Inverse folding.
């Protein structure tokens, strides 16, 4: 799997952070090109990746965090409770969703659009980047 613009760009409205392995800091990713002390552009992340350098990696939550309580913008949230309040047919499993009625696995691309947007806002890895070592699991950072 290759890191592509469509993996990163949907997260830019939600201030996704990328890990800078040189400075050992997290920077907010934006749509631009270049980098500074507190931001880096998508084009810069992808250009380094194309050169075989993994200086920058997005910091994402694994889907297994759906059942955890964590803080977003100063508020504690329990993601699966929020999602189930409007879509009661889904249940969170270790690595995704299950249809409550049929018991069948639901792939992320089959979820409602608003659910996918909400997952991206909370910085969940909806494309499987962590397992391909193209992103960093937020739980592994200190």
């Amino acid at each position: 799997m290759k890191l592509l613009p469509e993996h990163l760009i949907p997260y830019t409205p939600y201030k996704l952070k990328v890990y800078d392995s040189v400075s050992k800091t997290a920077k907010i990713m934006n749509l631009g090109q270049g980098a500074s002390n507190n931001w880096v552009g998508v084009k810069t992340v992808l250009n380094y990746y194309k050169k075989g350098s993994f200086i920058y990696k997005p910091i994402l939550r694994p889907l297994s965090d759906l059942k955890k309580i964590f803080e977003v913008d100063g508020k504690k949230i329990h993601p699966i409770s929020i999602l189930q309040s409007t879509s009661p047919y889904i249940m969170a499993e270790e690595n995704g969703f299950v249809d409550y009625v049929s018991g069948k696995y639901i792939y992320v691309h089959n979820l409602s659009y608003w659910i996918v947007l909400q997952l991206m806002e909370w910085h969940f890895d909806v494309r499987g980047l962590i397992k391909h070592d193209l992103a960093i699991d937020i739980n592994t950072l200190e």
About this structure: Strands lie at 17-20, 25-30, 39-41, 56-60, 70-72, 75-77, 90-93, 96-99, 105-106, 136-137. The chain has four helices and ten strands. The mean pLDDT is 87. The helical segments are 5-8, 42-50, 79-86, 113-121.
